[in-house]
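User: Reviewer 2 asked us to show a designed sequence for the structure in our supplementary figure. I'm pasting the structure tokens here. Could you produce the per-position amino acids so we can include them in the response letter?
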């Protein structure tokens, strides 16, 4: 098994705790002295830096919410003078003011290290050709993966997002072994590949590092089968650092978190109580090495759980389960909670349609109503109307049986749902317009 940094990736729990205790105490001191917003929050809670001696004291610290970043927009939570900041990115949130994040030279180094570990987890080495089809720019995806891949010494193809046809040409001509993009964009590429008549055997691609949005196990199976590769999940968010906050290894049994940089917790999003390992709840991260924008107990809104047992790959770090959705993406359909990825899972499991769908929510007569638009495959498209109605009913029935929600289902013509070249827009909420 290959590791990027065996010392930290395979460290014993006792040693890791010592590293975390030290780094957390130092971070809290720095934040308290350099960021007035945090100082006031801590003082309000009656907490002094000297109260934080170990990770057991984490619970004494206040949470940080996205709103705190908005209230201090753009640079109010930065912990060093702006002259030390060498890079600015923003988070891809679709609602409200964007949140701005800043990196010092050392932060870029930390990020590259975290990303290098993630890419090695997926089988990248210095002989790999990695095609980076995450967007370059203010989004952290492109540049984040780029620096990690260069750190390993892989050959980087910085193609950025978009232009699916060109992605395929480059993939074939340049001998890409590793593809990095969102899972929905990967699926668009698979489709384009088949339309262009390129056989998967003509490609050298072995693995994909896919993340930036939730995707179901069934979506993973679909991509793996149609592209003949290993599809690895990588997770991250700009506020914590960007991609590289966690990533799967080849065992695909949870995403390893570089805990020497980011300490995870799982809390109940309503009561804010810390939950024990194995429980599902909201992920919270404290950064313990970042300089520019260190964050304490950042509320990610992402739903996951933590596992502490050792992975078969030998890494000892805590693993988070695949993110099922965000607390703010959860749909409440007549009182039943459901995440878009659960609907995706049912549709792909059934396999009657193409794997392209969109969820439209509207309010009629004071009731929330969900309509699932799902694309027919070209062969279905030529079928009789009665057959199509049968399939719509079958899907409706399955969604009701598995998820307990009643939804309208409408089969739409092939290629009518917009293809993703970045993060897919799965939900159209007409109640908000
Ligand atoms: O999406 C960073 C990233 C880029 C991660 C490329 C992985 C690959 P933001 O734009 O700040 O950063 O969006 C962060 O995206 O809170 C999750 O809700 C979602 N997200 C990211 N990765 C995953 C994943 C980047 N693997 C937000 N599974 C996060 C599910 C994910 N959701």
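Assistant: Here is a per-position design you can include in the supplement:
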């Amino acid at each position: 098994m290959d590791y990027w940094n065996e010392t930290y990736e395979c460290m014993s729990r006792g040693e890791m705790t010592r590293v975390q205790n030290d780094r957390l105490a130092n971070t809290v001191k720095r934040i308290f002295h350099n960021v007035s917003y945090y100082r006031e929050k801590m003082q309000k809670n009656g907490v002094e830096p000297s109260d934080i001696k170990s990770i057991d004291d984490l619970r004494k610290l206040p949470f940080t919410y996205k709103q705190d970043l908005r209230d201090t927009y753009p640079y109010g939570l930065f912990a060093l003078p702006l002259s030390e900041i060498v890079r600015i990115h923003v988070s891809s949130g679709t609602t409200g003011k964007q949140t701005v994040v800043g990196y010092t030279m050392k932060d870029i180094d930390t990020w590259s290290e975290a990303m290098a570990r993630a890419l090695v987890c997926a089988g990248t080495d210095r002989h790999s050709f990695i095609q980076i089809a995450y967007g370059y720019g203010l989004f952290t995806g492109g540049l984040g993966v780029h620096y990690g891949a260069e750190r390993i010494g892989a050959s980087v193809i910085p193609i950025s997002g978009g232009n699916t046809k060109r992605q395929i040409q480059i993939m074939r001509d340049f001998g890409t072994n590793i593809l990095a993009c969102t899972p929905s964009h990967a699926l668009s590429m698979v489709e384009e590949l088949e339309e262009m008549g390129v056989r998967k055997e003509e490609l050298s691609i072995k693995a994909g590092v896919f993340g930036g949005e939730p995707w179901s196990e069934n979506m993973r199976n679909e991509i793996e089968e149609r592209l003949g590769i290993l599809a690895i999940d990588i997770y991250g968010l700009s506020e914590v650092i960007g991609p590289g906050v966690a990533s799967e290894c080849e065992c695909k049994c949870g995403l390893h978190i570089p805990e020497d940089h980011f300490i995870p917790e799982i809390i109940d999003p309503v009561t804010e109580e810390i939950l024990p390992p194995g429980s599902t709840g909201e992920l919270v991260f404290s950064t313990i090495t970042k300089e520019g924008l260190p964050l304490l107990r950042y509320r990610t809104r992402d739903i996951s759980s933590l596992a502490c047992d050792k992975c078969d790959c030998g890494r000892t770090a805590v693993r988070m389960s695949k993110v099922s959705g965000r607390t703010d993406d959860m749909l409440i359909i007549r009182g039943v909670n459901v995440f878009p990825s659960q609907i995706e899972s049912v549709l792909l499991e059934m396999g009657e349609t193409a794997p392209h769908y969109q969820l439209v929510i509207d309010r009629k007569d004071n009731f929330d109503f969900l309509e699932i638009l799902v694309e027919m495959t070209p062969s279905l498209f030529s079928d009789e109307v009665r057959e199509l109605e049968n399939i719509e009913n079958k899907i409706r029935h399955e969604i009701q049986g598995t998820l307990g929600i009643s939804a309208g289902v409408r089969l739409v013509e092939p290629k009518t749902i917009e293809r993703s070249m970045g993060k897919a827009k799965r939900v159209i909420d007409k109640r908000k317009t």
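For the response letter, you might also mention the following. The chain has two domains: 1-326, 331-432. The chain has a mean pLDDT of 95.
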